[in-house]
Amino acid sequence: MGSVRPLKIHVRLYGVFRSVAKTGELDLNVTETTPTVKSVINELVSRQGSEALRQLILDGDNLDPRSNALIMVSGREIGTLEGLKTELRENDRLELLPVSHGG
Predict the structure, then answer these.
(1) Which of 17, 54, 86, 95 could form a disulfide with 12 if both were Cys (CB 3.0 to 4.6 A apart)?
(2) How far are the Cα atoms of 23, 53, 73, 100 from residue 30, in angstroms, in the given order?
């Protein structure tokens, strides 16, 4: 029985996400067989260990990052893919750009 080889997903954070995470880029090694955008974002906020980052990225009511971030996978907005269910592959780039709300 073989072990699951981690997949490397490159994550880029912009704006306030980068400031709070104290890094603009990192590689996440995920062990899921078929990681999704949603699972990798959850892994990111968990590993960074910052409640401030979690609150900035994940909407407080439904924990959905789409209202707070423009999310791209290797240069394509996830709305043109499978949304949060988009499966990520080795060396994909997951980019999170903050969306500013005002009124």
Answers:
(1) 95
(2) 19, 19, 16, 29
